[in-house]
Amino acid sequence: MDIVNLSVSRAKNNEATEAVAAKAGVNLKDCYQCGKCSAGCPVSHAMDIMPREVIRLLHLRCWEEVLEAKTPWLCASCVTCVTRCPRDVNLPSLMEEVRRASKAAGKRPVKGPSVFDTLFLKGVYQNGRSNELYMMMKYNLFSGHLMQDALSAPHLLFKGMIGFKIHKVKDLPDVRAIMDRCLGGELP
Ligand code: SF4
Ligand code: SF4
After folding, report:
1. Which residue has the least CA distance to atom 4 on ligand 1?
2. Ligand 2 atom closest to Cα of residue 71
3. Ligand 1 mean position, distance from CA 181 (Å)
4. Could you give the CA distance from residue 77 to residue 95 in angstroms, rounded to a whole number?
5. Alpha helices (runs of H) in the chain, residue ranges in sequence order
6. DSSP state at residue 166
7. Domain segments of the chain: what residues?
8. Whole-structure pTM over 0.90, yes or no?
9. Residue having the nearest C-alpha atom to atom 2 of ligand 1
10. What count of other Cβ atoms lies within 10 Å of the Cβ of residue 58?
């Protein structure tokens, strides 16, 4: 087990951890580690650390551990934790900001969700909505899962649930303006 010098972590990572919390609109001190978020999280079985522990690591300024955790990448943003939290801590927002910081630091500890996240945001920025067929094809290509869902594609095409035509929304500049505001102009 690695020994962590908390005084060094605090001095080194104070700014980064506070910045990520501020961007997420979360006051880390609000969390008193009751664990209700983790107990209700439907994805916790697949996570390497519990959602509660992401906050605890941020409390302790263990920034590298947070950036390398798989948990933020597996968070489904279902908001169950927020509804259960007695302190209204917005964990999905925090997970989102950790993902962005992890990406910016070149970490991406889980490849699939990271590829999906990038392609989805780029697709929505381009057309104002996601076009499933192209999203599936690009995801398979860039994630290395070349044949994933390939057998379902003909059925979905036949039923008209996906198609080759690229749909764009009418108010594309508005969608882009919203995304620019949310992402601070940093598309992945
Ligand atoms: S439920 Fe809220 S207060 Fe409790 S551990 Fe989770 S985030 Fe912290
Ligand atoms: S928003 Fe994320 S952390 Fe919260 S319960 Fe859902 S999957 Fe778990």
Report:
1. 34
2. 3
3. 28
4. 8
5. 6-24, 36-40, 51-59, 63-68, 71-74, 80-84, 91-104, 111-127, 132-143, 152-158, 172-183
6. P
7. 6-104, 111-183
8. no
9. 85
10. 23
**Distance from C-alpha of 60 to C-alpha of 165, rounded to nearest angstrom:** 50
Tens digit of pLDDT at every position of the chain (188 positions) = 567 777 777 777 889 999 999 999 999 999 999 999 999 999 999 999 999 999 999 999 999 999 999 999 999 999 999 999 999 999 999 999 999 999 889 887 888 888 898 899 999 999 999 998 899 999 999 988 888 888 888 898 888 888 888 889 999 999 999 999 888 777 66
Retrieve residue 131's tokens.
């076009």
Closest ligand to 84 CA? Answer: 1
HSE-up of 77 (CA within 13 Å, CB side)? Answer: 10
The answer as to CATH 1.10.1060 being correct for domain 6-104 is: yes
Q: Which residues of 135-148 are buried (b: 16+ CB within 10 A; e: fewer)?
A: bbebbbeebeeeee
46 lines ligand 1 (CB under 6 A): no
What's 167's DSSP letter? P
